[in-house]
């Protein structure tokens, strides 16, 4: 397997893809949002319970490639317990990682997604669940779609 | 360079490249086919010798351009056995052709409550234009069902679907996802008996098998050059002349008017009425050369070649664990589409690309059909004249490797 | 081959031919321009190396094709100084671009009694689409008058024409018959103050002078590749993003939908919303290369070059007996059109062709203007980057010979 | 001047173009028809007085190139006094001449138009007035246009 491809499908990603964390509906959710990636048909629902400014619980559901599923799964583990401001900051870091391939300074599981930058068509797969989560936080009824922004 | 099955790959220089260290195995022909040298050279020669705007021109280059453009129209007429060149309208491709019929014929002929009958296997390009004109006119869209994974039209349901409200039946000749070859002549005959106008989406048949509009008996037929060994940006709408001449224009502009006043305008008959503005004459000339190329190979031979590869791919892929293959087991067009349990189509396609194998993964512009089948995407391998049996080996090996990785 | 004014004719092999025993003098550039080698070679290279359908593809060729196609969009964005690539929609040409605006923006925004303001010098392609949408919506078409043979817009009449009923002002940047260069920025500024949407037909300006949509301040701008040293079949509609995203789709099909159900569909934003079906990506790539070619020469230099030739042709033709030359005496675009007393344009063009001089004769898709000026046709000589002063000698000599023959 | 071009602009044609015969409206006309050639803007009105089956008088008016004007002028001289059946026969001969370039067996001024066949774009110019005349004879209100037939 080429270096690029093994960078893309890192063990962290394969693991989250095989055993997704926090998958399913969240009965106690007080926010949710749907995201889709019209070009490839990937879909992702994010459910969360906001407790004041803090993400108390978060789950996702949907279908898509290993990258999009692993990204959604990993995201839920990262966002749980964070404030909404921290969530936005994390997304910025994540976005930087998947578009530039630069690993973050602190050690982070998010770094597993650095390989995505070599596959520009897959960047949308990696960011889909994050867009849905941010929309849910904002209480934005409009659905997230990876077409209206270029990542 | 004449078109011939001997050394056919030499006529397609793009195939002689390595992708990720492997020889390119191009199996994405249902999305677009590659172009033979005879076609790209004709295009280049046209720009180097004859290029000038067509019609209305009296100088040498303009007359040569016009002759070449109208010659291409006549070539296409013969290619699909239409009655007259006036029945051949040049468009950008299948999608524009169908939009033209839906908007022009539809706006003049559809009323509230009328039914537009499609099938569940239509490509978005033969679906959304009808939804748009239905919205505008108050007509209703109905669908002939597909019989599950086997992917045949449920012809038994036709009797109850062909009500007096049905004004138009539009269907694909060959499904781009299932590989099904629909019984076009039979469908058109049944529609015609009831006075229903028929529109055939020939995007996936035109380059792969003989297509004869009079044998099919359709009123309209649409196709794209880029899927029949020709260049992008050119396609055709065939329409029966009596219908075309009764249709209002769709786009307005230079070349399609008989006279223009500040107060209003009158139109030329077909094909000019439907070709507003400078047409894509250079690519039309290339399309004519592609007709020569395909007829040189023999369209019956192409159908046999592509179908045999698809059949073999079907049989060999069937042996893979957790695979679900769509479409008929028997006769099929030159493509196979399939899904794996637990491995997403996009991951499969990305891995295949590593092996130099070009596949398509996704909904193939067939979202409603996918939903019905409980899928969001499939992997599709589609064949053309230059593909060879050893490329099926590469395909199957790549699939096996991917399955192992994700197991 | 870089674009350079030195040996510029070597970059256009089509020019090195004899017509009727004379060197070709191609003066039909307003109808279509010739293509430099850099452009046709880029097209050929694309088909030989990268061709695959764009979007939705994850294999190497498809990603390269997509990058090339979206790269061309960004190149065009820079070429006209649009804000974002999403404001660049690829079409077949000016005519399709204007039909898109008229049908999509028009159907959503025009009501009975609204006024569409055009000018008397519009090409049929910026006139008939508006007549069609006026018919559909009950809007009314009005015209800014032209001041006779001098061919200027009667700006004094604007105050009374710009009533509150006017919803859109559409006008040509450079007239293809008169050679007039309209004050686009001034017209757009006046319209914008009143909340009127502006559409600029840049078919005759785009390849001949700097065109900056933000400096002009227009809402929409349309042009064709084949008139700017590029290939046929590709053109552009520029639109301000806020307007585009509020507009309904025009054509439906693959690539423009966000989701499709049997019951209905949702759309992607611009540009995809307006690019249904497989786009003409190969020719779009060629268009990007044409932008490089023109910027390599310098668009201000091109304007100077073409304008100087037109001015010289104007002056020298003025000396011929019985000639009537249209358009401004002062600054003008790179073309001259004229009529002779007693000799019809078509006879003039036929005689010129004998001398190898390619001219256009007719109404130039400007019938209403022609009628107003009491003409049915003119002869038009139009210049481009590869034309040289000695070709004006050939033009004038040919005109003199024809006049003598018919005297 | 090349052979082709001098064949096109024969003396007969130049003469009819310079001094058109039977040009103008016909006050006594009981039939008329308008023809146009949309691609190039040529126009032609034909007026005639049918006396039973015979064309007693015929005139034309219009604008266009030398070929179309000369053709209209010559046509009026040829059709005057002919029966409608003879007129149709003459048109067939004329059509054969301009499309094939073959001169007719009997000597005829129509032969002057044989040179047109080498300039296919001009065939419409030569036949425009004839189409209008035949429409007028048929009493066909629909206007003749050279676009609905390929000559
Ligand atoms: C001013 C003007 N507008 C529009 C057009 C139409 O362009 P196209 O035929 O490329 O669509 C032309 C060219 O014919 C033109 O000169
Ligand atoms: C069955 C079918 N119909 C229509 C289309 C649309 O063709 P195009 O994109 O060339 O307009 C396609 C190809 O994508 C197709 O496979």
Beta percentage of chain B is 15-25%
Strands of chain A, count? 4
Task: Please state the second-level CATH architecture of chain A.
Answer: Alpha-Beta Complex
If you compute it from the alpha carbons, what radius of gyration of chain B comes out, rounded to the nearest whole angstrom?
22 Å
Key terms for this structure?
heterotetramer; A: 151 residues; alpha+beta; Sufe protein. Chain: A; 4-stranded mixed sheet; 4 strands; B: 407 residues; alpha/beta; Aspartate Aminotransferase, domain 2; 2 domains; 7-stranded mixed sheet; binds pyridoxal-5'-phosphate
Structural commentary:
- The complex is a heterotetramer, with two copies of chain A (151 residues) and two copies of chain B (407 residues).
- By secondary structure, chain A is an alpha+beta fold.
- Chain A has one domain (3-148): Sufe protein. Chain: A (Alpha-Beta Complex), CATH 3.90.1010.10.
- Chain A is 40% helix and 19% strand.
- Chain A has a four-stranded mixed beta sheet, covered by helices on one side.
- The longest helix of chain A has 17 residues, at 84-100.
- Chain B folds into two domains: 4-30 and 298-406, Aspartate Aminotransferase, domain 1 (Alpha-Beta Complex), CATH 3.90.1150; 41-295, Aspartate Aminotransferase, domain 2, CATH 3.40.640.10.
- Chain B has a seven-stranded mixed beta sheet with strand order 4-10-9-8-7-5-6, with helices on both faces. Chain B has a four-stranded antiparallel beta sheet with strand order 13-14-17-16, covered by helices on one side. Chain B has a two-stranded antiparallel ribbon with strand order 1-2.
- Chain B is built from 13 helices and 17 strands.
- Chain B has 407 residues and is an alpha/beta fold.
- Chain B starts with 17 loop residues before the first strand and ends with a helix.
- Helix content of chain B is 38%, strand content 17%.
- Classes of the chains: A alpha+beta (151), B alpha/beta (407).
- Chains in contact: A-B, A-C, B-C, B-D, C-D.
- At the A-C interface, loops of A face helix 2 and strand 11 of C.
- The structure holds pyridoxal-5'-phosphate (2 copies).
- One pyridoxal-5'-phosphate sits between chains B (93-95, 123, 125-126, 172, 176, 201, 203-204, 224, 226, 365) and C (254, 277-278).
């Amino acid at each position: 397997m080429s270096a690029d491809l093994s960078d893309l499908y890192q063990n962290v990603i394969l693991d989250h893809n095989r055993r997704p964390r926090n998958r399913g509906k969240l009965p106690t959710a007080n926010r949710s949002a749907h995201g889709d990636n019209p070009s490839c048909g990937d879909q992702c629902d994010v459910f969360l319970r906001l407790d004041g400014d803090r993400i108390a619980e978060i789950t996702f559901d949907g279908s898509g490639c290993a990258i999009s599923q692993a990204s959604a799964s990993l995201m839920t583990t990262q966002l749980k317990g964070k404030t909404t401001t921290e969530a936005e900051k994390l997304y910025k870091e994540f976005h930087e990682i998947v578009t530039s391939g630069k690993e973050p300074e602190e050690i982070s599981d998010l770094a597993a997604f650095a390989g995505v930058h070599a596959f520009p068509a897959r960047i949308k797969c990696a960011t889909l669940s994050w867009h849905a989560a941010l929309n849910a936080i904002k209480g934005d009824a409009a659905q997230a779609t990876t077409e209206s922004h270029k990542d | 360079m004449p078109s011939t099955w001997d050394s056919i790959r030499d006529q397609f220089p793009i195939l002689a490249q390595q992708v990720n260290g492997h020889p390119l195995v191009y199996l994405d022909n249902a999305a677009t086919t590659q172009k033979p040298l005879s076609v790209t050279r004709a295009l280049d020669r046209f720009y180097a010798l004859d290029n000038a705007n067509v019609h209305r021109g009296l100088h040498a280059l303009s007359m040569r351009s016009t002759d070449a453009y109208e010659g291409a129209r006549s070539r296409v007429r013969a290619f699909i056995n239409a009655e007259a060149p006036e029945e051949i309208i040049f468009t950008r491709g299948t999608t524009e052709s169908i939009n033209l019929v839906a908007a022009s014929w539809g706006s003049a002929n559809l009323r509230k409550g009328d039914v537009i009958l499609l099938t569940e296997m239509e490509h978005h390009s033969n679906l959304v234009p009808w939804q748009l004109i239905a919205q505008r006119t108050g007509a209703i869209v109905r669908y002939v069902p597909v019989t599950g994974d086997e992917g045949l039209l449920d012809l038994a349901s036709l009797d109850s679907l062909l009500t007096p409200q049905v004004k138009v039946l539009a269907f694909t000749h060959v499904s781009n996802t299932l590989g099904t070859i629909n019984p076009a002549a039979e469908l058109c005959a049944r529609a015609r008996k009831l006075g229903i106008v028929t529109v055939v989406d020939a995007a996936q048949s035109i380059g792969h098998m003989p297509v004869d509009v009079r044998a099919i008996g359709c009123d309209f037929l649409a196709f794209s050059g880029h899927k029949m060994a020709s260049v992008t940006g050119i396609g055709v709408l065939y329409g029966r002349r009596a219908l075309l001449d009764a249709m209002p224009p769709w786009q307005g502009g230079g070349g399609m008017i008989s006279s223009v006043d500040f107060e209003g305008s009158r139109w030329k008959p077909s094909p000019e009425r439907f070709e507003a503005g400078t047409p894509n004459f250079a690519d039309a000339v290339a399309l004519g050369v592609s007709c020569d190329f395909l007829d040189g190979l023999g369209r019956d031979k192409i159908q046999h070649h592509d179908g045999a590869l698809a059949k073999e791919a079907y049989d060999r892929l069937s042996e893979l664990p957790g695979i679900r293959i769509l479409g008929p087991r028997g006769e099929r067009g030159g493509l196979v589409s399939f899904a794996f349990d637990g491995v997403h189509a996009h991951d499969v396609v990305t891995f295949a690309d590593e092996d130099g194998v070009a596949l398509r993964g996704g909904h193939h512009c067939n979202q409603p059909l996918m939903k019905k089948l409980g899928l969001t995407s499939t992997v599709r391998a589609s064949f053309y004249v230059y593909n060879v049996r050893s490329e099926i080996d590469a395909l199957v090996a790549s699939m096996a490797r991917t399955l192992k990785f994700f197991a």
